[in-house]
Amino acid sequence: MSTDRDRFLKRLAGRTPWDIIVIGGGATGLGTAVDAAGRGYRTLLLEQHDFAKGTSSRSTKLIHGGVRYLQQGNVSLVLEALRERGLLIRTAPHLVHNLSFVVPLYDWWEGPFYGIGLKLYDMLAGKLGLGPSQLLSREETLARIPTIEPQGLRGGVIYHDGQFDDARLAVALARTLEDLGGTPLNYVRVTGLVKEQGLVTGVIARDEEHGEQFELSARVVVNATGVFTDGMRRLDDPNCAPLIVPSQGVHLVLDRSFLPGDSAIMVPHTDDGRVLFAVPWHDRVIVGTTDTPVDATPLEPRPLPEEIGFLLAHAARYLTRHPTPRDVLSVFAGLRPLVQSGKGGSTASLARDHTLLVSSSGLVTITGGKWTTYRHMGEETVTAAAAVAGLVERPSVTQELRIHGWQETAREEVTMGEYGSDAAEVEGLAAENPAWGARLHPRYPWRGVDVIWGVRREYARTVEDILARRTRALFLDARASMEMAPTVARLVAYELGRDTAWEEAQVAAYRQLAAGYLPPSP
Q: Which residue(s) pair with 364 in the sheet?
């Protein structure tokens, strides 16, 4: 059966140069491509695996100004992030919502210290603020966080930030790019750069599904490949100095009983200098994150035993119920593309600002930053890229551009709410085949229609694409996701016209992948 991806691949056969080719289908690449297409530029986005396969599906699920950056004195980054947070809640209300956070206070000085700091946070947000911070009594803190450690508790401070589903926003941005006339293509790997007289004029790319190779012309090429930034830069200049210092962040997922209620916990300072979050998400609890310098940048980073131990130990300090490895439903690792500061020190101290570079050959590189600022990064990148290419100057429209599925009032259902205005069409698939209305697993809300929709309209190609990023089963409960794999494989195979051998290979590959999301047996 023909899919959107098949249709997009046919566009690569044409010889007309693209205005902009963006390499990388994470937050930054998608934001850049959407901005470019929004300005009317002929835009192609190429991703070597699936959209948000890497760092962009492995975040703490927060759209936030960054309280920690305020502590570091990086007021400009906080201002930028708070502004972008406010814009994103307006342009994607079906995907981003307000979440209250409680900072528990155990020492006498913490109340005035964090209270004043969070009032400054409110002030910097201005009209785009989500609600005022305020001091809580001990009783009020326990009412909001019933499982917080009561011994020595003096009270708390409550403040507000944004929460979202990172992979779902990435998919919505790919759909937005398509809506704007752009071309989002996953599973197309850029293997080389085309140059004429020392200037980058295109890319060499390979369709990872069928092995076909393409030479694609472009007026400008953007490198938005996150932790793989330096690898792409070396295709341009083999002698370029490294730019990225990768850092690994790990998150644990626990049952909701560890943190009932509607508020998250934020601990401002842990042993490694990072903040610790315990955040309710999709009726589970995410605890994170670590900050571990790493040398390698695999597509599937694995948590280290000491990182898991670190998070379990810190969770036990602040929760009355102490989690053990047996309580962990899933554990996932992501790599941050931190930019070299030249000052040494830990990765926890490196700024999360973004960096925009243009090489002597005209390759535009955008890296660093975080999900919250993806739109602003994209805007800056396209402005620079258009100047490099000599494109007609056009203003960015993304400040007010509604993300695909925009719906002012999000639905409450875990799955349907994130489809936004597409929800009715997804529901309608059950009329085509009533069996698709059945749940994939008795403990989770996803159904066959979610799989069919993921393949037909959201570019999913594999069992992993469905269970990791179209649904979030892998990240919420790795064991349960393995149980769903055969049903998902059968539905994906039906939609793509694959045979039983493909199904079996997909299930085996997925189960091997998902095993890495379980903590080591004690």
A: 222, 358
Structure tokens at 456: 């037909």
Q: What is the dihedral of CA 182, 187, 191, 197, to 10 degrees?
A: -10
Query: Are 395 and 383 a contacting pair, CB within 8 Å?
Result: no
- How far apart CA 415 and CA 472 sit, in angstroms, is 10
Strands 188-196 and 244-255: unpaired
At 428 the pLDDT is 95
pLDDT per position as a tens digit, 380-419: 999 999 999 999 999 999 999 999 999 876 555 555 678 9
Contact of 29 with 22, CB cutoff 8 Å: yes
Amino acid at site 82: L
* Segment holding 337, helix H or strand E: strand 330-339
Q: What are phi and psi of 516, to 5 degrees?
A: -75, -5
- Write down how long the chain is: 522
Count helices and strands (H / E) in the chain.
17, 20
Q: What is the pTM of this model?
A: 0.96
Q: Using an 8 Å Cβ cutoff, are 285 and 349 in contact?
A: no
Say if CB 167 and CB 52 are below 8 A apart. Answer: yes
Beta bridge partners, 239, equal none
Q: Which CATH superfamily is domain 97-163+245-341 in?
A: D-Amino Acid Oxidase, subunit A, domain 2 (3.30.9.10)
Name the 3-class secondary structure at 429.
Answer: helix
Half-sphere exposure of 80 (CA within 13 A, CB side): 19
What distance in Å separates the CA atoms of residue 218 and residue 203, rounded to the nearest whole number? 8
Q: Helix (H, G, I), strand (E, B), or coil: what is residue 188?
A: strand
The secondary structure of 192-225 as a DSSP string is EEEEETTEEEEEEEEETTT--EEEEEEEEEEE--
On whether the CB atoms of residues 135 and 178 are closer than 8 A, the answer is: no
Contact 517, 511 (CB under 8 A): no
Q: So where are the chain's domains? A: 4-55+168-243+349-389, 97-163+245-341, 416-515
Cα angle for residues 104, 309, 111 (degrees, 5° grid): 15
What single-letter DSSP state applies at residue 159?
Answer: E
Could you list the beta-strand ranges (E) of 344-480: 354-358, 364-368, 439-441, 444-447
The H-or-E segment that residue 505 falls in is: helix 500-515
Please write the tens of the pLDDT for every residue from 448-464: 999 999 999 999 999 99
Pick the CATH number of 416-515 from 1.10.8, 1.10.10, 1.10.3470, 1.10.12: 1.10.8
